[in-house]
Prior knowledge:
Blueprint: H1 2-11, E1 33-36, H2 40-48, E2 60-67, H3 76-84, E3 89-95, E4 102-103, E5 115-116, H4 144-152, E6 156-162, E7 165-170, E8 180-188, E9 191-198, E10 207-211, E11 223-231, E12 236-245, E13 259-262, E14 266-271, E15 274-279
Parallel strand pairs: 1-2, 2-3
Antiparallel strand pairs: 4-5, 6-7, 7-10, 8-9, 8-11, 11-12, 13-14, 14-15
Amino acid sequence: xxxxxEFLKSVCPEIPVHYEGAIRTKRVGYxxxxxxxxxxxNVIKTAKGTRGKKYFEKPFFLCEYCHAMGVGPGALEExxxxxxxxxKLMGGCIWEWCDHAVYHGKDDKKYKYEYTxxxxxxxxxxxxxxxxxxxxxxxRTLHTGALEMKHAYRPVRSVVSGxxxxxxxxxxxxxxxxxxxxxxxxxxxxxxxxxxxxxKVIAPSATAEVTLPLGRIPSDRLVTLNIFYxxxxxxxxxxEQHVLCDAPAAIETGDKKVLLTESDSGxxxxxxxxxxxxxxxxxxx
Length: 285
């Protein structure tokens, strides 16, 4: 390890060298201290210098911090709240990008499922489904974990600071927000009533205050403020939603009977002042 480090520095002295295995040696780390799957509490302790001297002398990097297997990864937002809290924390990487299952096609009668993994092909030595641990399916369509990552990695973070005022923090380190188009929309009971564009340019790592012309917010409606971050081609990078006023806990109804209907897409219940629909495939409202 040391010989490799010395060689790398002789070839390119300015590059930082990272080797996670060093954490289990007396050296602890080279130019970067690295670990895998450190819990958030210890990540915060590392930033504050309360986890031990060896963790505080160099930048801290989680070469793996979330595992995308099954319903994972989880707690991305909490990890990134911690990462942004201290310049000592460099961030981390998710294991891993894509599932590695084998695609057979729906017409392949040999296998029961469209995708197979270890043990499905008669092999005795295998890791079962451990290769199916990515943010995207083998055909590169998105897992829900990829959508969670998209949200956690958003380039701007907004906070409602009161009334019509937003605090926007640019999480880019080297780019201002002039590379983005930031749009907003105000909704009453999920229906858009106002929208606009935030033109303010925010410097890298800076926070700016923005006042929006929202007007009076009713107290008897569900009121949401949606923020959209797009690139200059109009592709959505991420979005945020703030609930300015929650919906009433209960709504009085009349004597009209509830009408239940079933369709190819799902189920619905219609009553005298509203309607609710459930997706047949996902169960979502």
